[in-house]
Amino acid sequence: MEKPWFKFYPPNVPTTIKIPEMRIDELLREAAKGSPNSIAMDFMGKTLTFKELDSLVDRFAAALLDIGISQGDVVAIMLPNCPQFAIAYYATSRIGATATTMNPLYTPREVEHQMTDSKAKALVILDALYPNVKEVIKKIGVKAIIITNIGDLMPPIKRTLGKLLKKIPTAKIEPGPGIYCMMELISKHPPEPVAPKKKVKPKDDVAVLLYTGGTTGLPKGAMLTHYNLVANALQCNAWVGGEKGKEIMLSVLPWYHVYGQTVCLNASIVLQNKNVVLPRFDPEDVMKTIQKHKVTLFPAVAVIYNAINNHPNVKKYDLSSLKSGISGAGPLPLAIQETFEKLTGAIICEGYGLTEAAPVTHSNPLDKNLRKVGSIGIPLPNTDAGIMHLEENRFLGPGEEGELVVSGPQVMKGYLNRPEETAQTLIEVNGKIWLRTGDIAKMDEDGYFYVVDRKKELIKYKGYSVFPREIEEVLFKHEAVQDAAAVGIPDPAVGEVIKAFVVLKPEYKGKVTENDILEYCKKNLAAYKVPKEIEFRDALPRTIVGKLLRRVLREEEIKKKQA
């Protein structure tokens, strides 16, 4: 298959890179040897060098073995961004076990599903989160519950003050069999190198089980091998460039999500850069942090960039240290991109990925002359992509719409215990394994790809195919619109009617009407694409990384109709 996109690679980006077969924790071991005294992490003012972080990983790895966690077992991690997350994550890899990461906001039902499906033997969790899931953990029965406090690795004065002022959430956990304190476990073990008993096979052995968003049915565990994750960290670094040990990364994207895990955590370790870690997103905290630490790399999502653009205090902060950012997990509207670039002088580019590809497969070049706004860019080094016919396993030419498929070292091994779904998602064509993304897309003559929409979210109106994203892009161009979503609601007469949900910018509330927005749509969209109704909302349902949940809006509307 021809790869026209190679012509548009920036001069500093190779078309292929060497990917070593190694465990993900060995990335940290290498950084500890290469830059032992450089700062790996800064968490609320507490710094850890690469050597210190690696030593803590060894100590916790020894502790895991000591409490009966073996090679091949699954360790669940339910923590926000903090050094303890990195320690648990790399220590799990160091003993040849598998990590499964969970959103700290999960309900007991969601925790039960992931813990049961993955057969997790241990859970590393914040003390403040434990009471919420205690009953369900008892019911499942795990070998070890390891508790930590968000302040455990903060500077002592901040930790003491934070607890006194109740700024650090804390819960008293009754000691009992199988319940351990993470910091106590670490303190009991000397900093001696640990390695798995049996040699890990990086291309076969699963490093992390990441559960896909579950936009349909129950979430499935995508099996990402060590090779998948190492490959994607190296691919991302080759793309973004940056000087080894000289860049400053801001980690506000959650590490429990595949995007933050690869782009902020693993990629930063590979480049041996300082990683400034924030446990949650607050626009003002982010701006303060960028100014204070002179952050250069800021991967995020459109919602985060937009929140900074629209923050009343944005002009108070010096954000000029920023060089670049990649926006993923959904489209980056042009208005958001242009405003952020004007404010900071940085360049942000839209990229594309999915959990099943660890996650990044495409990105626009970080070069204003090479990027194509509105496209997801071109495939990363070592990555192949194409557009496949929706009914037949054959590739389509430039300009034709079909399903986006990708192939590369970052593509998962499969779904855990789901052979049928794996067989539907990973297909062999011309002797190569391709991952079906479920996105409808097209490729232009230059090899740039454009996601038209989710295959499942296409709106069918009177036989026409209408893409929600096209309507949303039009709405985003209206000066009063802060956020927007379009969905199709089943209707026996026309198939589906289009309804748009709009969040107005605060200064336009009460001044712009639904009818104003509707008239604007009529001027900018073909008649069959114009929403039948506009509804104003204070916020739209989005996942933790800002991906729009159109299905939630659709389900609400269907329930209303049935009532």
Describe this structure in words.
By secondary structure, the protein is α/β, with parallel strands linked by helices. The protein is globular. 31% of the residues lie in helices and 25% in strands. It has 3 domains: 260 residues, Rossmann fold, CATH 3.40.50; 56 residues, Luciferase, Domain 3 (Luciferase, domain 3, Roll), CATH 2.30.38; 103 residues, ANL, C-terminal domain (GMP Synthetase, Chain A, domain 3), CATH 3.30.300.
Features:
563 residues, alpha/beta, Rossmann fold, Luciferase, domain 3, GMP Synthetase, Chain A, domain 3, 3 domains, 8-stranded mixed β-sheet, 5-stranded mixed β-sheet, 16 helices
Helix and strand arrangement:
Layout: H1 25-34, E1 39-43, E2 46-49, H2 50-66, E3 74-78, H3 83-94, E4 98-101, H4 108-118, E5 120-126, H5 130-140, E6 144-148, H6 156-164, E7 179-181, H7 182-187, E8 206-211, E9 221-225, H8 226-240, E10 248-251, H9 258-270, E11 274-277, H10 283-293, E12 300-301, H11 302-309, E13 324-328, H12 334-344, E14 347-353, E15 360-363, E16 378-379, E17 384-388, E18 402-407, E19 414-415, H13 419-425, E20 426-429, E21 432-443, E22 449-454, E23 459-461, E24 464-466, H14 468-476, E25 481-491, E26 495-504, H15 514-524, E27 533-536, H16 550-562
Parallel strand pairs: 1-11, 3-4, 3-5, 4-8, 5-6, 6-7, 10-11, 12-13, 13-14, 26-27
Antiparallel strand pairs: 1-2, 8-9, 9-19, 14-15, 15-16, 17-18, 18-21, 20-21, 21-22, 23-24, 25-26
